[in-house]
Amino acid sequence: xxxxxxxxxxxxxxxxxxxxxxxxxxxxxxxxxxxxxxxxxxxxxxxxxxxxxxxxxxxxxxxxxxxxxxxxxxxxxxxxxxxxxxxxxxxxxxxxxxxxxxxxxxxxxxxxxxxxxxxxxxxxxxxxxxxxxxxxxxxxxxxxxxxxxxxxxxxxxxxxxxxxxxxxxxxxxxxxxxxxxxxxxxxxxxxxxxxxxxxxxxxxxxxxxxxxxxxxxxxxxxxxxxxxxxxxxxxxxxxxxxxxxxxxxxxxxxxxxxxxxxxxxxxxxxxxxxxxxxxxxxxxxxxxxxxxxxxxxxxxxxxxxxxxxxxxxxxxxxxxxxxxxxxxxxxxxxxxxxxxxxxxxxxxxxxxxxxxxxxxxxxxxxxxxxxxxxxxxxxxxxxxxxxxxxxxxxxxxxxxxxxxxxxxxxxxxxxxxxxxxxxxxxxxxxxxxxxxxxxxxxxxxxxxxxxxxxxxxxxxxxxxxxxxxxxxxxxxxxxxxxxxxxxxxxxxxxxxxxxxxxxxxxxxxxxxxxxxxxxxx
Length: 521
Ligand code: XMP
Fold this sequence. Notes:
The protein has about 525 residues and is α/β, with parallel strands linked by helices. The protein has helices at about 15-25, 40-45, 85-95, 185-195, 205-220, 235-245, 265-275, 285-295, 300-320, 335-340, 375-385, 390-395, 415-435, 485-500; strands at about 5-10, 30-35, 50-55, 80-85, 95-100, 105-115, 135-140, 145, 150-155, 165, 170-175, 225-230, 250-255, 280-285, 325-330, 365-370, 440-455, 460-470, 480, 505-510.
């Protein structure tokens, strides 16, 4: 594996630590995230980072057992950037003081004002002559109330008198806000300045990521066998092709038809993979298994857990068939991870169990391989291009593992699924006809657990209502509804009602994420 200049991120458990890595990858900087417990002097020596970033985190510096980086971080002679909790830990360790919130908490949007020029802030306040202040995103209860010797204050905000502090001589920087999030609009510039100060050449690319991932798969698997759950979506296709490059025919793909796929999907996926790749593929028709188990289930978490459990049963069966595969590969992405993991195991709280992460039974007897776990969707697409996947794979809208089950709130019946599949096909056809498919992150129909009264011809109808969902997004973490024209919406509603027996009312979901999620369950 080629050696790259390394930036080390010490993770204190912030929900957005991976966004730091992402910002750095955008700048072609190679970085590694290590949980604070693992950052030992030995690790520092081995990795020889050219710079260190201390992440945010949920702990409170004044607490006796709150985490710290090793003191050696400040003796490496390299630039160090502390973000939020990272800033506070740095201040406390280097002789300053952090106090509990009490009135100084800031959550959400805030504005910082410059006090003095600083290399890290170069260009940051440009164009702000009239206001002199820049928007940032804050999320802190405690705050620094005395800075460490050698440090100066370079920017302030109403709740954080030490919004940006620095010991410019040693290149130690601390900021109370989060430059890594989208809501700090000029955050990227701060990272750009930081890596420039640290002397990074920008020698890291997706090709480098691919090589590293392939090597990691080979090291982990050796001559073992792997099965990969293939859904036909971008993530599992990229994971499969990547693993195939790493270990060739030690990989078998399993495509499970759980009866919750879209119209024509099973045939399409099997054909696409068969046409383009020479990877052994098992097409498991398990429709009855899943739909019987879901009969009468209406709770969203129970649905997800049931589907997750059955997926594993099916994979285990096929793992045995291909001669004892020990590994199960999945295309889990980072947003799935942070929305599913609780703090004890890493960052963030559980929002819902994604079937390919939180819904897994603990003892499944297969070891998991998740080569895309650190990536966001747009990065997976870039990796897919790097691997030479055809554009038809790369451009497909995401489709969730639990499939139509989470687009059918309430009880799932075969009848509802059939109606849903037809309505969804009309909606997607409309989007394609109007040339909008590539502008939209994801579009689908949800069938609602409610019947409404209508009139068609001279008769009364009592059929299902459905909701159209179409969103724009960069990474699935936040999303906005797509602003279709009224003409488009009207035409689509008419087509669905005319072409899909069983639906007599069409609504359009205009909720953003947050507060909504993209899927309905
Ligand atoms: P939400 O609904 O959480 O969706 O805003 C964000 C993205 O994730 C997809 N999604 C899933 N994908 N297994 C998956 O493979 C799941 O359990 C799952 N739940 C949501 C969703 O389609 C969207 O692209």
